[in-house]
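Subject: mismatched residue count in predicted assembly?

I count 345 residues in my input, but I want to confirm that the predicted structure covers every chain. Input:
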Amino acid sequence: MESFIRALPKIELHLHIEGSLEPELMFELARRNQVSIPFGSAAEVRAAYEFSDLQSFLDIYYQGANVLIEEQDFFDLCWAYLLRCQQDNVVHSEIFFDPQTHTDRGIAFDTVIDGLQRALEQGRTELGISSQLIMCFLRHLDEDSAFDTLQQALPHRNKIIAVGLDSAEAGNPPQKFQRVFEAARNAGFLSVAHAGEEGPAGYIRDAIDLLQVARIDHGVRCVEDSELVQQLVASRLPLTVCPLSNIKLRVFDTMQQHNIVELLRQGLCVTVNSDDPAYFGGYMTDNFLALAAAHTMSRDEIARFSFNAIEASFADAGRKKQLESSLREFYSQNKADNNKGESHE
Ligand code: ADE
Ligand code: ZN
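Triage response: the counts match. Full output below for your records.
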């Protein structure tokens, strides 16, 4: 099963690029930019990654982003992530970035997006990895700041497929951003939102009804509302679930208690993602392996996460077709474990 998981073509739909900043690169950028960080070594940084909840993570995550200053820093960050994608057979990725984390420190919006965009372009040509950018509003900040960010994004409309909503969920409901999401939709952006990670199932409903999102990020607390679960089965509105993140941030106590496999079996369009891999102990393959270690799943079920992610993705129709036919080919060649003659059909 491990080799099947490693080789499986994967599609990532929930990845914060700032959350892929590995401690080694954090140190290199701190040195390069003469930014002081409160750690003596990369090992010390890793040792500090013990989180009790979402906020305890966000405090450290925003601090880490302070080392990102120059366009080249954003390129290096994104390129390092794409090389990890290549290792994990991630063939398409939709990447969140948080402009306010940078513009609030005086870094120009253009510096951020130009660096990311250059890496993504190189990823396409040199690694064959397709990608999209999703710009998130930080929900702990106010509506004015989100409107200001949307304004700055307009000249880059062709480089950003969607807007999203992240950061501290509890106490920052979707309603707070209803008007800015409406303006973003009118400007041609698709939309997604984090909901039902730490916040209640009602926030998932509100993200769907008030923000008209095409996907919910996390969404695992949907199980607290059985009608909502039925609605998600019927609509196939996707959830981008992040198993290792949910354990690290104590959304579930153990991976055995994680509900993604149950949601898959109920017919929801659930997908597997890494969220902030440098902070949560793993990239895409690690997330699949951790799930498979805790839950008995067939190859069909594991492959279904990738089929769901293609269905849920914002890739254009031509790319989706390519992704689907290469996944189908992989699956038909690998659905049985030839060593054991096992089949899960
Ligand atoms: N920003 C980065 N990771 C996040 C998460 N898991 N939830 C909310 N905001 C985030
Ligand atoms: Zn996230």
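Residues 339-345 have pLDDT under 50 and may be disordered. Marking this ticket as 'not a bug'.
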